[in-house]
Amino acid sequence: MRHLFLLSFLWLLGPVSSWAQTNLAGLVTDEKNQPLAGVTIIIRGTNTGTITQANGQFSLQTNESLPLTITASFIGYKRQDVVVRGNNFRTISIRLGEEAILTDEVVVSASRVPEDIQKAAVTVEKLGARQFQQSPATSPFDALQNVKGVDLLTQSLTFKSVNLRGFGANNNNRFLQLTDGMDNRSPGLGFGFGNVAGVSDLDVESIELIPGASSALYGPDALQGLMLTTSKNPFTYQGLSVQLKVGANNFGKGSFGPKGYGDIAVRYAKQLGARFAVKINFQRLSGTDFIADDYSDRSTRARANFFTTDPSRGGLATGIGFVPNNDPNTNFQYDGVNIYGDDINAGGAYSFPANYANVLLQNKLATRTGYTELDVLGNNGKVFNNRANVSLHYKLPGNMEASLGWYYGNGNFIRTAGFREYFPDYQRHQIKAELRGDNFFVRAYTTQQQAEGWNIGQTATAINNSWKSLGQWAAEFGQAYVENKVSVGEARNTADRGRYLPGSDRFNLVRDAFANTYNTDTVPGYKGARGTRFRDNSAMWHYEGMYNLTKALNSIAEVIAGGSLRHYGLNTGGTAVTLKADGSEYTINEYGAYVQAAKELKVGTLVTVKPTVAIRYDKNQYFKGGFTPRASAVVSVGPHNFRGSWQSAFRNPSPGQLFAVPAAGRGGDVGGAQLAAESAGLFTNPAYLDSDVKDYTAGRLSEAQLRTRAYNPANFTTEKIKTWEVGYKTLIQNRLYVDAFYFHSKYTDFIAAQSFYQPSNGQIADFASNAYRTLQINFNNFNEIFVNGWGIGSEYGLGRGFTISGNYAYQVGTVTLRDAQGNVINDNAGSPIVKRKMSNPEVSQKGRNFFISPENRYNLTLSNSRLTDRLGATITYRWTDRMWVEQGTTAGDIWLPSWTSLDAQVSYKVPTFKSVVKLGGTNLLNQYYAQGYGLARIGGLYYLSITFDELMRQM
Where is the secretion signal located (predicted)? Predict the structure, then answer.
């Protein structure tokens, strides 16, 4: 850390020699010679820029020598480049023509150098000011939900996970989020926290998204894709901006809703003299979260007879046979999805033995009465989020810019892994120092976080057990049911007498005792019971640089080269990942380097061909190093651009996938490292795949056969993928824009946390009495996994400012199942499972594959940002197909229904006050849906905002 700040200080105190200044000035108008306010003016190749005033005039200073080129861009108008020479630099005249379809975007994510988005070699999506302004979404991050092929899984009002191209996850560690070049992920937990700790909404300049492997330039973490969020440079975007937003959600919730929320953001940027600029941001959101209130009986393969089977074909699964009984008064095994403490797989159920005194309860499984999520949290769903940023920027000779920035995020939220987990006060600091020039950058940053949370389900179980043991509760339940001859509900009521009531002093005292005690420690006064709290106060340091060698090579080819170093310092105290034998924390070191070469070749007058090759080498200290090559090409024939790419890549397991351990005696995640398996007792008390246990209890496997299938912690290795993609992009008659793609991917050594059962007493016989704990063990399966998909996006200018746009994406995952010896596994009917859909019941019956992605989804949008000179509007319809979900220890297995959302916004400009008033909402019809099993159900969210942009700006 000390070296980082020293380096930053030296950069900012770098050469102080003066250089000549040129004062540029001009006027921007539309085709009717009316002045345009708010047009962005940037000197090409630099960060030097400004915004036009109400009268359309602009001025800025530069040390660049003439001639130079400036770029003028404005929402709804075609971008224009103007050459500035010695005879016009004080009277620059720019006239912008209207353009309903924006097609001349420049992106940097695809090849790490600026290029036309139409000629990028891979699929790239870009959201900028135009998309943010027209989107009905409440934030720039939420606007991603309208991008083709993107699935946002909503964990919390402030926490959404981005998923692309299959294997959707609440905690996606195959997708890389970069904010101003910094990795957004939690150092220890190993996944990005969405926008919990991102930049302020007012400071987002653009978001670029690459679906598909991007590892050749960005390293192993970008196996499934990349999102690059770029904030506004204070030299270009100056003045005071303020956004005030009020809204409401949770409508139609009876006595609970509706609930209001407020959001305020402030940004101030100022250039001081010719060289120095400062930027300050702050945003505060507070409201009520969407509530996880699915109280239906849990659909999970842990249920008896979960699959519909065909006995004549060896018990082959033909469908889902489980029919939930949602009434706890009649259902012995009622296990509510968002009811906690009644979880069959997590200590909330009692199995009456086969020799129980009364035959009515022999071999019966009875669940306790649980608590709702709101009961356990006790905060009435309140949520808050703070984001702040301060950055200093200094211009150096040679068109270089040094910057030093502090980025802060703080808030509370719920995330879903194997269980629902509550983080009451997450805090993260990122500090970055960077030096950037025309053909290079060097960057160093650190991520420091305090992430302490507690397991909601385990806490509810602990509350129940601290009041009355499971055995005692079951005895009272059984006595009431048998001797008093009452119903299941009445028996429960009898056994529940004196139960701690939510919100009572005793309930809160017990909850806080467990939630505030680490899961490695016993809770004082509770007979050796362990707490439910965990922490990830880990840190990460990252150093990287890149150099563009094109000029040095006299433009023979476009060549870039770069590298990075990274160090993780884990700090969980053994609550989330295991400790070393001496009790110290693990560290992880990684390094990588890459080179890319490209050359644009002209073939005749209309055709250009641009081949690109890139290769990267990465090494993690716990795994063998590996190369990730990529080859691509773009062929442009007039306005038609054809692209193709191939890449081989790998992914290092996250720290949690490597070292995670469950709390003593409880279920949970187990890392793939042998030390993690040892900490979970898997060497002395082996665990068995859930499907194998099912076959054993059904008589399809003998005890001897089951023992041969015990989990064996072998060499844990990296996950690998080979993928290729083709695409086409064009603009037809400046009115119809089309972007289409097709891709194929093959995964090997796929890392997935499968459900394993570990017998409670170390005896195989325990399985017959349901005496076991469920573990989610991370390991490399031997399957071959294939993902195929295609998508198309289109935008059409209808005239008079109207545009209609839409996109459709399709993807399907298939698998060839193999055992540890590489043999293809047969289904229960004896047929080999080769390239079958992972959602097919005969495949799912043999184990979870976690594809968790809808096959189909589409969006349709009608928009006009200029209904009048001040009024704009957008309406969007979104539809997402049903999807097969396999999730976690307690979540379950289910076909999640399809869902739709109708979103809209109306905006009104008030030029006098440099402001825009926006009235909008998502899911206007308030049709509740969940984007994952056990997640909060999303209803209507309605808001009114007013944004004052770049007040107090001086020319």
Answer: 1-20
